[in-house]
Amino acid sequence: MASFQKVVRAVEQIAPLRLADCSWDNVGVMVENPKQRNAEKVMLTIDFTKEVLEECVGEGVGVVVAYHPPIFRPMKCLKMSDYKSMLLLESVVSGMSIYSPHSALDSTHGGINDWLCEGLNTTDIVPTRRTWKIPLSASAAQLPSPHPRPSQTSFSPRKNLSTLKTSVSHSPQAHPSPPPPPASQSAQAPAPPSSA
Known about the structure:
Layout: H1 4-14, E1 28-31, E2 42-45, H2 50-59, E3 63-66, H3 83-93, E4 97-100, H4 102-107, H5 112-119, E5 125-132, E6 148-155, H6 161-169
Parallel strand pairs: 2-3, 3-4
Antiparallel strand pairs: 1-4, 5-6
């Protein structure tokens, strides 16, 4: 049986926590269950919601990797009457552990920020903050000497929102043309049936 720590190590090879912006973000282990259910079943989700929790319980999931951290701000208490607290308590009772990579996944090479810039067809990507690039295949013992890697990216020339909306809405990928009608179909609408 795989352990929660094995799942954590695998995710951190893709999105090392040192790439996260911890000045505002909460990343890493959110819930480490002392009575861990089988970690062979892992649920990947954007948000840990009641629907996701129910699916995890029904499918026997032991580990949830939630992109957005289900614990973002400090919590003073855990009560079933509070939605976020209820999700966390139910996950513990069900034997699940929860991990969130959030801004570490944004900042990793080929991560969310790179993906967004790629989707905007930008080629001039400028780092707004420097961190370190780690090859995906490297283990802690094999890490090369680090070299700069953008953590947060922006594109140049900087565009305002209306310019960005216009360029996205007019791109051929945003609104693909419908395929032409087959040659056998007439360009005219068919005549209505006669009521004779």
